[in-house]
Write a structure and sequence with these properties.
Strand content: 5-15%
Largest sheet: 2 strands, antiparallel
Number of helices: 2
Shape: elongated
Distance between the termini: 55 Å
Radius of gyration: 19 Å
Order of helices and strands: HHEE
Length: 76
């Protein structure tokens, strides 16, 4: 490797805004199984399918109906 590099003509990564961040999230087993089955038929990893679904929800600004003690439902 060189001792010095010239970054004077460098530019920012144009895709930096679209980078993904790894997080830890707890999901129900049946939810994971659902997306894994979808992944088998779609050719997309289940993690990417979950990300696509959540991105779609965020773009549509969907908000879940929360009822404590009852399963969460999605509003359209």
């Amino acid at each position: 490797m060189r001792k010095e590099y010239d970054f004077s003509k460098s530019r920012k990564n144009p895709y930096a805004a679209k980078l993904k961040k790894q997080i830890t999230i707890r999901l129900d087993l049946d939810t994971i199984d659902y997306f894994k089955k979808l992944a088998e038929t779609s050719g997309i990893t289940y993690q990417n399918l979950i990300n696509l679904y959540l991105r779609d929800c965020a773009a549509k600004q969907l908000q879940p109906k929360v009822k404590w003690g009852v399963r969460v439902e999605q509003t359209d």
